[in-house]
Known about the structure:
Keywords: Transferase. Pfam families: Acetyltransf_10. It contains three helices and seven strands. The chain is an alpha+beta fold and about 140 residues long. The protein has a domain at about 5-105: Gcn5-related N-acetyltransferase (GNAT) (Aminopeptidase), CATH 3.40.630. It has a seven-stranded mixed sheet, sandwiched between helices. The chain is globular and about 35 Å long.
Amino acid sequence: MVEINLLKLNFDDKEFSHIRDIRETVFTNELGISKQELFDKNDETCDHFLIFDGKEIAGSVRILPIDNMVKLERMAILKDFRTKNYGKNCIFQLKEYYSKHGFSHIILDSIYSVREFYKKCGFIEEGDVFQRVGIDHIRMSLTL
């Protein structure tokens, strides 16, 4: 598996500007999601991670703690780093981190077309397909 490092950030850290850039590149430029949808009030309280390959930034993800589980949100891997196991390695490290910190589950709302990626990481589908920002999604979960 490819070696990556995760840098945990807060919303007010200066490095958060990289997360803004990544979300805009992946979600707005590639998927056509409005810039207004990229950030919300949860950004102020979530854990944020930059995903690094050596010195290069490969992507970002945010984690929203909810009781005894965490919700993985806004995972974005830059195009040059996709299909190289950066996302899979990131999820593996997040599973380890949040398991050690007493959480029992990870949930996420996957874009439907990429749900197979999350299945390969151990997530299972829950419920029906639903629309968010004009894109089909499905809830998925993983027991830690």
